[in-house]
Amino acid sequence: MQEVITFACTECDRKNYTSQKNKKIIKDRLELVKYCKWCKKHTKHKEEKK
User: Which GO terms describe its biological process (predicted)?
Assistant: First the structure.
């Protein structure tokens, strides 16, 4: 059961990336270091609530 999730930058709170996640297997929220084109640097991106 794959669901689409969105990632938002922790510094500017913009939604930059989307991905898929199996919510039956991975219960907690994901946090990744990705490039934010508005901050112009690598920042932490957290999974957003729906």
Answer: translation
